[in-house]
């Protein structure tokens, strides 16, 4: 009998057609298992990213530098220039100063005192991360959302302040999500050489004790300071990315590979007679085993593609774009590929062992 590669390929395709029902059941089952693995891995990765983003929005990377004797209207003890200079340092996302002035009345709303805040640098972008890409956040006059709700001071509103009749036009309204205690305040640029009450600093990576010490040293030459993380220690101790890397399901692909490989090996076990027949009519052991393995490889490739594709489609439908990541996608595909590779290895080893079955009996 002729056992050229073209003949073997033809035999493989013919056998797949003849066993269509069996292979459909096995392939669909395998695809469902692989889809579950892909979906679980992608979901876990996305949840870790989403939690990390929530912490970042809350200010996990933000530190506040202030005087040890801070008052409600500030102490103006920090060097504003040193605060702004941090924007040129490696590892600093942005830094800006804050100086709170005495309450004043708006001419349009007498009897309703509000606090004025002078800022230098992108302080507003630290308070409201949604303005991080807005260059206007470092200049102009801004009103907090509370001030807009309370006195109707919104974008474009002309504001006249107190006896000096200082006229300003509101550039924008922002929500200080990282400083919710701020309340109704009017924010406008102050002189960059002045003293400040606080320096708000956002770093590019999670805050550590070493970073807090380094920031304290940066200001220590000028005056005693207190450097504190914006969030409390309990919130900072939890890092979703680290938790994801040590998750209990990290090696689920191994269990999935064992289960799927065992399933395929059971199907192959029922074909011991076919292997013996092929060898009887002139096929070498390599050809006989290779033909069976080629069939399994074809079905497993289809199952891997269908299962992984289904998992990715579900992931895209279940999660919004901001929490999708190429790293998460690569992790999910890698896990399913590892599981499929392990299953194929188990099946191949089982098929080779079965080819010697008649001699062991």
General description of the model:
This protein is an alpha+beta fold and 361 residues long. It has helices at 5-18, 20-58, 80-85, 123-127, 145-151, 209-220, 233-237, 240-245, 252-269, 272-280, 285-318, 326-355, 357-360, and strands at 62-66, 78-79, 92-100, 104-106, 109-120, 141-144, 158-161, 166-174, 185-189, 195-196, 198-203, 226-229. Strands 1, 3, 4, 5, 6, 7, 8, 9, 11 and 12 form a ten-stranded mixed beta sheet that branches. The two termini are 27 Å apart.
Features:
two-stranded antiparallel ribbon; 13 helices; 18% strand; ten-stranded mixed sheet; 361 residues
**Rg, alpha carbons:** 33 Å
- How many strand units? 12
Number of helices: 13
Show unreliable segments.
none
The helicity comes to 40-55%
End-to-end separation: 27 Å
Helix/strand order, N-terminal first: HHEEHEEEHEHEEEEEHEHHHHHHH
State mean pLDDT (0 to 100 scale). 79
Q: Please state the overall shape, judged from the principal axes of the Cα atoms.
A: elongated
The structural class is: alpha+beta
Strand portion: 15-25%
């Amino acid at each position: 009998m002729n056992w050229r590669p073209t003949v073997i390929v033809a035999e493989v395709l013919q056998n797949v057609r003849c066993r269509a029902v069996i292979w459909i059941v096995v392939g669909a089952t395998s695809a469902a298992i692989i889809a579950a693995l892909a979906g679980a891995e992608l979901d876990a990765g996305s949840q870790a990213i989403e939690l990390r983003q929530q912490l970042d929005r809350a200010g996990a990377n933000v530190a506040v530098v202030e005087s040890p004797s801070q008052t409600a209207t500030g102490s103006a003890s920090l060097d504003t220039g040193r605060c702004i200079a941090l924007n040129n340092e490696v590892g600093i996302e942005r830094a800006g100063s804050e100086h709170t002035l005495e309450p004043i009345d708006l001419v349009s709303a007498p009897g309703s005192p509000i606090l004025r805040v002078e800022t230098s640098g992108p302080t507003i972008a630290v308070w409201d991360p949604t303005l991080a890409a807005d260059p206007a956040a470092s200049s102009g006059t801004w009103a907090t959302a509370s001030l807009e709700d309370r006195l109707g001071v919104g974008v474009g509103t002309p504001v006249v302040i107190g006896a000096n009749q200082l006229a300003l036009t509101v550039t924008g309204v922002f929500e200080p999500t990282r400083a919710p205690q701020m309340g109704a305040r009017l924010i406008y640029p102050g002189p960059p050489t002045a003293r400040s009450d606080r320096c708000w600093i956002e770093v590019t990576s999670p805050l550590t004790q070493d970073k807090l010490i380094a920031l304290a040293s940066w200001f220590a030459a000028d005056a005693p300071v207190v450097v504190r993380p914006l969030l409390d220690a309990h919130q900072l101790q939890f890092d979703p990315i680290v938790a994801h890397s040590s998750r209990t399901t990290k090696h689920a692909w191994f269990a999935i590979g064992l289960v799927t490989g065992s399933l395929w090996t059971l199907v192959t076990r029922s074909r011991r007679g076919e292997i013996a027949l092929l060898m009887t009519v002139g096929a070498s052991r390599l050809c006989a085993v290779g033909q069976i393995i080629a069939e399994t490889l074809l079905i497993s490739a289809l199952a891997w593609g269908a299962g992984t594709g289904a998992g990715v489609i579900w992931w895209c439908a279940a999660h919004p774009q901001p929490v999708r990541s190429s790293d998460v996608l690569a992790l999910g595909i890698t896990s399913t590929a590892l599981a499929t590779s392990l299953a194929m290895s188990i099946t191949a080893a089982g098929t080779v062992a079965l080819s010697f079955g008649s001699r062991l009996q």
